[in-house]
């Protein structure tokens, strides 16, 4: 498998504080890698190192096979784009002028393609409006356009939807999915908004206290997420006996309410309960979410 | 690095500060030439040329270069746009060198604007140079190197401080110190006479007078005249620091041309070396 990023045993120490502790991770080409972790877990430090803004204390990483200590890293980085912390833009310039700056830095022979990029991020009509007057969502979209100016194969986005309104979140999500599908661009996206991340990520890396706790693909994650049936019945009499007959794990949240873990058809459950004289009042199927998986991985809600 | 330079200059030509400075450097020789042309004791073309390296007040060159440097390059730190350069594979060494070259070219370009306007409009009004060709050439060479040294020092300050407010404050402190050193050194080497007049006193302790009854005066060594070691040190300060060089060139009649050239080259190399080493190790925020 071809990887756009490989990180091996990477650590970063700020005086006595260990921000990253032996991080090892792999991002395959074409993946949308969700880096999940709470604030201060080490997400941004890892991203800053990958983007060359900081050096690791120990360990190594490679971008498209080029180790960060070699000279090839500079040409490998030209296949990369990114937003670290917040979009880096000249506030006094227009969206177009900001993109022109990026094109010049990339050594592009002409400014062809700027209009297309602006159209893609829906900023074509901003004219000469200075970026400092843009909304947060507009700046975030322009940041993505800047990151895409180099026609990258790998884009790093640090908390791309932080502070955005629901419409802005949907727009960013659609842009990422479109680019991943149409151009096979790999993304590394850090976020603590797990619900949103779960809608786009194909791979996950869970980070806590500077350590990668687990790396998992979307399919593996779906397999490991437990199915749940939440129910309410009319009486508590013989309820436990009835639930034991399902041979599934269960938890009662009140005398007449509870959750069953595993797969069972609702009609089969209803039949078992009927045999014990219990009537099913309310029932719904639920999947374990990425959030609950993450909480379990961290060892309970007290950790979040 | 060519890409970085292109991007820098594309940003510079959109900067209002740059165009204000262009206007200042273009208008200044015109105003001086017109005023001097109508005055009774007008200045020579030589003096007019030397004013290019002082703009009326010798620390002014440093102030103008610091202003331009802070406005253009601090924006990269303030907006975080420096990150864009690094993420797409530009090395920190090249970023530093591109900024240094940009500043040097800009300061020289502004000086050339002054010279062009002076040659086209100033010289016809004030007449030909009175100094030798070699003196004029040395003034141009030393002046250009002085501007490049200021550019190197200001680039170091901005790139190492990584913060626009800190850069402005440090620049002002450095410029003030430089100006004070140059002022003090210039005063000690040029303004204190080796001899002063004193009354002549006979062997009885009386004032000596001539036949008209006027008190006779004689030259006596000035007790405040600095020793040779102090004068050499002061001259070194004047030759070494760009503020001292600016003071000397804008006043004309200086002689340590080679020393100034070597000190400038040394300062440019040293400040750039330190700047690149510090900037390479720094974390970009």
Structure description:
By secondary structure, chain A is of the alpha/beta class. Chain A folds into two domains: 3-218, P-loop containing nucleotide triphosphate hydrolases (Rossmann fold); 226-287, Alpha-Beta Plaits (2-Layer Sandwich), CATH 3.30.70. Chain A has helices spanning 43-50, 72-77, 95-106, 114-120, 136-148, 166-183, 194-197, 218-224, 239-244, 266-275, 290-298, and strands spanning 3-14, 17-28, 32-36, 58-63, 66-67, 80-83, 154-158, 186-191, 203-208, 211-217, 227-233, 249-254, 257-261, 280-287. Chain A has a six-stranded mixed beta sheet with strand order 6-7-8-3-9-10, sandwiched between helices. Chain A has a four-stranded antiparallel beta sheet with strand order 2-1-4-5. Chain A has a four-stranded antiparallel beta sheet with strand order 12-13-11-14, with helices on one face. Chain A is elongated, with a radius of gyration of 24 Å. The two termini of chain A are 34 Å apart. A two-stranded antiparallel ribbon of chain B has the order 1-2. Chain B starts with a helix and ends with a helix. Chain B has 285 residues and is mostly helical. The longest helix of chain B is centred in the middle third of the chain and has 35 residues, at 92-126. Chain B has eleven helices and two strands; from the N terminus they run H-H-H-H-H-H-H-H-E-E-H-H-H. The model of chain B has no long low-confidence stretch (mean pLDDT 83). In chain B, helix 1 (2-12) packs across helix 6 and helix 8 runs antiparallel to helix 9 (228-240). Chain B has one domain (2-173, 249-281). Classes of the chains: A alpha/beta (304), B mainly alpha (285). Chain A binds chain B through residues 48, 51-54, 73-78, 80-82, 84-86, 88-91, 93, 97, 100-102, 104-107, 146-147, 150, 156, and chain B through 2-4, 6-7, 10-11, 14, 75, 79-91, 283-284.
């Amino acid at each position: 498998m071809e990887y756009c990023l490989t990180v091996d045993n990477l650590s970063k120490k700020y005086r006595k504080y260990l921000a990253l502790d032996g991080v090892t991770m792999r991002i395959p080409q074409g993946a949308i890698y969700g880096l999940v972790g709470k604030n201060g877990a080490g997400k941004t430090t890892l991203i800053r190192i990958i983007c060359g803004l900081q050096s690791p204390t120990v360990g190594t990483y490679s971008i498209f096979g080029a180790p960060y200590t070699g000279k090839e890293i500079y040409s490998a980085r030209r296949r990369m784009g990114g937003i670290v912390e917040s979009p880096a833009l000249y506030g006094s310039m227009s969206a177009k002028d900001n993109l022109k700056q990026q094109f010049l830095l990339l050594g592009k022979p002409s400014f062809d393609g700027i209009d297309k990029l602006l159209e893609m991020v829906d900023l074509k009509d901003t004219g000469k409006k200075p970026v400092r007057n843009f909304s947060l969502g507009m700046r975030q979209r322009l940041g993505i356009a800047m990151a895409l100016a180099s026609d990258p194969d790998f884009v790093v986005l640090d908390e791309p939807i932080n502070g955005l309104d629901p419409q802005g979140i949907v727009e960013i999500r659609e842009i990422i999915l479109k680019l991943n599908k149409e151009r096979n661009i790999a993304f590394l996206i850090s976020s603590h908004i797990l619900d949103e991340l779960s809608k786009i990520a194909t791979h996950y890396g869970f980070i806590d206290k500077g350590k990668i706790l687990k790396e998992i693909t979307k399919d593996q994650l779906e397999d490991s997420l437990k199915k749940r049936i939440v129910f309410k019945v009319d009486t508590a009499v013989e309820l436990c006996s009835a639930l034991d007959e399902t041979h599934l794990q269960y938890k009662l949240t009140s005398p007449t309410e509870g959750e069953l873990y595993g797969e069972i058809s609702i009609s089969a459950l209803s039949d078992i309960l009927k045999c014990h004289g219990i009537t099913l009042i309310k029932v719904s199927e639920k999947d374990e979410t990425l959030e609950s998986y993450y909480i379990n991985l961290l060892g309970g809600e007290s950790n979040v | 690095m060519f890409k970085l330079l292109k991007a820098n200059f594309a940003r510079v030509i959109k900067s209002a500060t740059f165009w204000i400075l262009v206007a200042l450097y273009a208008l200044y020789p015109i105003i001086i030439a017109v005023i001097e042309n109508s005055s009774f004791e007008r200045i020579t073309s030589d003096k007019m040329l030397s004013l290019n390296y002082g703009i009326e007040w010798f620390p002014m060159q440093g102030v103008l270069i610091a202003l331009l440097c802070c406005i253009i390059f601090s924006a990269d730190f303030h907006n975080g746009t420096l990150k864009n350069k690094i993420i797409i594979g530009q090395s920190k060494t090249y970023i530093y060198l591109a900024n240094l070259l940009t500043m040097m070219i800009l300061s020289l370009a502004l000086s050339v604007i002054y010279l062009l306007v002076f040659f086209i409009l100033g010289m016809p009004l004030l007449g030909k140079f009175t100094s030798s060709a070699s003196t004029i050439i040395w003034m141009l060479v030393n002046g250009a190197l002085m501007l490049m040294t200021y550019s190197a020092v200001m680039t170091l300050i901005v790139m190492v401080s990584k913060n626009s407010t800190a850069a402005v404050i440090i620049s002002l402190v450095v410029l003030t110190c430089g100006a004070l050193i140059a002022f003090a050194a210039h005063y000690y080497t040029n303004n204190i006479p080796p001899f002063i007049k004193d009354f002549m006193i006979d062997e009885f302790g009386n004032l000596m007078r001539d036949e008209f009854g006027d008190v006779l005066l004689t030259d006596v060594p000035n007790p405040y005249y600095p020793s040779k070691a102090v004068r050499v040190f002061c001259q070194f300060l004047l030759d070494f620091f760009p503020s001292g060089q600016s003071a000397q060139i804008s006043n004309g009649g200086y002689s340590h041309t080679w020393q100034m050239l070597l000190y400038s080259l040394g300062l440019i190399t040293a400040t750039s070396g330190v700047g690149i080493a510090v900037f390479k190790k720094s974390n970009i925020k």
